[in-house]
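Reviewers of the previous submission asked for a worked example of the structure-prediction workflow described in the proposal, so we include one complete record here. The input consisted solely of the amino acid sequence. No template or homolog information was supplied to the procedure at any stage.
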Amino acid sequence: MAEELHLDTTLTKAEQYRQLLPQIEALTSSEPDLIANLSNTVAALRQAFGFFWVGFYLVKNDELVLGPFQGPIACTRIRRGKGVCGTSWEQAATILVPDVEQFPGHIACSSDSKSEIVVPVLKNGEVVAVLDVDSDRLNDFDQDDQQALEQLMPLVAGWF
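From that input alone, the workflow returned the following structure tokens.
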């Protein structure tokens, strides 16, 4: 079977997520490789919503290390508690930032990034990775994004 997404861009964002998440699950359900699944997940999210940057940072030793992503080049390593990603890791919580310039300690991997959402991947109560999604528009993320991306994380956690 050819891997392709079926997307209806006339739907609301929440409806598009409801359409997309089962497709990501189907796409990854028979693939045991972590990197392949993370890669297809970021590709699907970027294709569906046109995000400026979407990718995973993986917890390795005592820092986040860049994993599969799509978009411009990115920061390679982030310390715990630093920037939006490191803060999400430290707090084990989703962080939605309407304007990255207003986030204390924001790490500017790209000056084109204007808003961001970071969602932790929890396995056995520990953060094993974070999903980082950036937009080149202010206030681009909302509760629909947060709810859907958080709903996706248990699937992702199963790959670790």
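The chain has a mean pLDDT of 94. We consider this example representative of the routine output the project will generate in years two and three.
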